Amino acid sequence: MLDDAKTLVAYLKKSDERGDINFAEDWKLTTLLIGGNDLCNYCKKKHVCRSTVIYTDTICPQKSYSAKKYTRNIMQALDLLQKEVPRMLVQVVAMSNIPPLLKIQTGPTCAMLQAYLCPCGLDTRTAKQMRAVHQQYYQALKRLIEDSGRYDTKKDFTVVLQPFMADQTAPKDKNGKYDPSYFSVDCFHPDRKLHQIMASALWNNMACDHGAHYDNPNASCIFSILLQL
């Protein structure tokens, strides 16, 4: 994440040199969306907890995929942007809950790709823990962005948490069956339909007052905003 932030800062400054933007005066909107790779791989090289029981059984995540490490990586990137970039609003989109999405199945190819992309979600032992781990990620991110005040120290920079994917469930068709048309061939990454829903949900949440963001991708503040016009 830190390297990505450095790349973005360098790109913005280069754009300023070319005259494409005014780095000092133009407002900038950055949206940070991190996929579920950490969550999908947290159970690799799993070990037994000794002094601290984190979950209901004895399996603990590898340290590199812990909520603390996950949040620290994001914090380093946000700290750099806050230090280097004036007039910027950063939106951090919360990670979706992976296990419900793995209910999408279309055949052996789909199952094979899911097993490769998200092994922890298909393991019967660790899949049950992924919801708890997902919540640890989300709560740690919420503390960093909303509760700490770390990014509320400048008049021209702030960070907003967008939670509309936090409780995402696998979409169903009119017959109540899980609908694979929202996903790409691997039955894991979103296809155009789901990308459209995610884009609309982000836009709708951008219209919400601070602290009133929805964790439901179908909810909207747009109607209430229009009533006030």
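That was protein one. Protein two is written in the same sequence-then-structure order:
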Amino acid sequence: MVDAWANADARALEAELQYEKTQDSVFASILLPRLIDERNRVMADRIADIARSGPKSFVAVGALHLVGKDGIVERLRRRGFTVRQL
């Protein structure tokens, strides 16, 4: 996961997240939805509010929150925001 993050390899990060979601474990069934999915929704809402408050914004979040159709990046893009990696 660290190599994927360091190389900006979103596909590898998403593959790691999807793999973890398929595991038969408490982590996959209870913790992942709370730690990733629910927090993505909340963080995307807060980031949208921050972005509306001024012309430029900088936000840092954990790498697994960025990828996937329900990740923060896609949630913000669906709202019309432009998101770019620095």
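The chain is about 60% helix and 0% strand. Keep this in mind for the problem set.
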